[in-house]
Design goal:
Blueprint lengths: L6 H4 L4 E2 L22 H6 L9 E7 L10 H11 L3 E7 L2 H13 L6 E5 L3 H6 L12 H4 L4 H5 L2 E2 L2 E2 L1 E14 H6 L4 H7 L3 H10 L2 E3 L2 E9 L8 H8 L18 H15 L12 H9 L3 E7 L2 H14 L14 E4 L12 E9 L8 H15 L1 H11 L6 H7 L8 H11 L11 H23 L5 H16 L8
Parallel strand pairs: 2-3, 2-4, 9-10
Antiparallel strand pairs: 4-12, 5-6, 7-10, 7-11, 7-12, 8-9
Helix pairs in contact: 12-20, 16-17, 19-20
């Protein structure tokens, strides 16, 4: 994203996604870099013999803080499992991952596997470069995954890879501040909260020194790579889990959308959020959280608990690399509130190992080997190690089994809270046609994001933004193609 989350490896983004989950940081390990061979070229090394030697290439970013440190071991373990196969990994940074992949795709010689957000699959399907693994993904492979995250790797009827994790976009709270404000955070973790309850809670978290605010109740990153996150995440728990309803009508023309926009502006007007919210990026909001300038932060990912623990340890050790002026924080995972009387629907990011083809159709043998490699990377020991590093929930049976023998210092209340949120995760929508999805993305980039920035800055009113979005939607989808309630 997850925006990928940058935040997953160093405290996210953000989420960003190659998705918001993973878009806010990471190292750039260039050691041992190998140029990926074209899928077509690699296919030539395969043959009809099941034991034929073959090489599978993979372009992989720093999925977790220690992920790229394990590349050599991953390659060795894969070869030990499949002596006739070689896994050749090329490291990439989050910053150059998309550019590298697109350059190789445009040249007709992509890697066999690339780690990307599931929301990017349709782009490569349209280009004819994504590889459908449906006929080579064995029941043993597909049966290992939880059903919901696996659905995210589909487009139409095709299965284009395997998921690495399903991460929840939650909120994060400072336990000391929550309890000082009288907030029963354990009850919130179990039962959630409505916007009205949330609004009242964050008001109690504000600390003022005269006219100046030294601590806000709530801060959410809304600038830079996080510009799409705030509204998109909140909309899911406002009765709009996707840009289109099940009848494929554009959803953001619903009356709930206007109510949501009104609520998001209201929290700034209350003084619970900074007036300068539109300029707060992912790095600044995390700095504000660690320095005690906000009680609750967003978007919050499970790995933030780990990041907070590491900063706490640096404070105890009087390590100069601790965040400047930071305080010790006991990080608490919190759900997003519900709006407009809607049921809770968690915003999730599913990233994973997507298969690609070159200009030539790969042989059946090579295609099957790609599936083996993608499954190897997304299950068992590799998945357990990576997800534990991220504090992400395990989504394969084999990953859970491998993780059982691994130690991890994680708040059990947070683990349970994430599991609860995952239980009502937004469903995958492979049924949304690519042309409709493309139009929705255009509206998002050209109308929603700039109007949201203006709304947060106090330059326009919620009704103004709603009217602009509705006009753009009617132009794109027609009167009959939008929700009118």
């Amino acid at each position: 994203m997850m925006n990928k989350g940058k935040a997953l490896s160093l405290m996210l983004a953000a989420t960003l996604s190659v998705s918001a989950l993973t878009a806010c940081g990471g190292n750039n390990n260039k050691n041992g870099a190998a140029s990926p061979a074209a899928s077509g070229s690699a296919a030539a090394s395969g043959s009809a013999d099941s034991g034929a030697k073959d090489t599978i290439t993979a372009l992989l970013p720093p999925v977790s803080p220690t992920y790229q440190d394990n590349f050599d071991q991953m390659e060795k373990d894969f070869n030990a499992k499949y002596p006739n196969l070689t896994l050749k990994i090329e490291p990439a940074s989050w910053e150059d991952m998309t550019q590298k992949l697109d350059t190789q795709v445009n040249a007709g010689s992509p890697p066999d596997i690339a780690f990307i957000g599931s929301d990017g699959i349709s782009k490569y399907v349209q280009q004819g470069m994504a590889l459908d693994l449906t006929d080579v993904a064995t029941p043993e492979m597909t049966g290992d995954y939880d059903a919901t995250p696996l659905e995210y790797m589909k487009n139409g009827t095709g299965l284009y890879g395997f998921p690495a994790y399903m991460e929840v976009h939650a909120l994060g709270g400072n336990k000391e501040f929550l309890e000082a404000a009288g907030i029963d955070w354990k009850n919130v973790q179990k039962n959630g909260w409505t916007y009205d309850v949330f609004r009242d809670a964050i008001k109690k978290g504000v600390v003022k020194n005269g006219e100046a605010t030294s601590r806000y109740g709530f801060v959410f990153a809304t600038a830079g790579v996080a510009s799409k996150d705030y509204l998109g995440i909140m909309a899911k728990s406002a009765g709009m889990p996707a840009a289109f309803n099940k009848d494929l009508k554009y959803a953001y023309t619903s009356k709930n959308y206007l109510e949501l926009l009104t609520d998001l502006r209201q929290m700034i007007d209350d003084g619970s959020m900074p007036k300068e919210l539109s300029s707060v990026d992912a790095g600044k909001r995390w700095n504000m959280f660690l320095t005690g300038q906000t009680m609750i932060t967003g978007k919050g990912l499970a790995t933030f608990e780990n990041s907070a623990k590491k900063n706490n340890a640096k404070i105890d050790a009087k390590d100069g690399s601790a965040v400047k002026d930071s305080i010790k924080v006991d990080y608490i995972v919190l759900p997003v509130p519900t709006f407009a009387g809607a049921e809770p629907v968690s915003s999730t990011v599913v990233d994973g190992y997507v298969a690609f083809r070159g200009k030539k159709e790969p042989t059946a043998e090579h295609k099957a080997n790609i599936a083996k490699a993608a499954y190897f990377l997304s299950s068992g020991k590799v998945a357990a190690t990576t997800n534990n590093d991220l504090f992400a929930a395990h989504i394969t049976k084999s990953g859970r089994e491998a993780a059982a023998s691994m130690t991890i210092d994680r708040n059990p209340d947070n683990v349970a809270a994430v599991e609860t949120m995952l239980s009502h995760a937004a469903p995958a929508r492979p049924d949304i046609p690519a042309d409709l999805g493309a139009k929705a993305i255009k509206i998002e980039n050209e109308v929603i994001v700039p109007k949201m920035q203006a709304l947060l800055a106090g330059e326009i009113k919620p009704q103004d933004m709603y009217d602009a979005v509705k006009k753009a939607a009617i132009d794109a989808f027609g009167q009959d193609g939008i929700v009118q309630d």
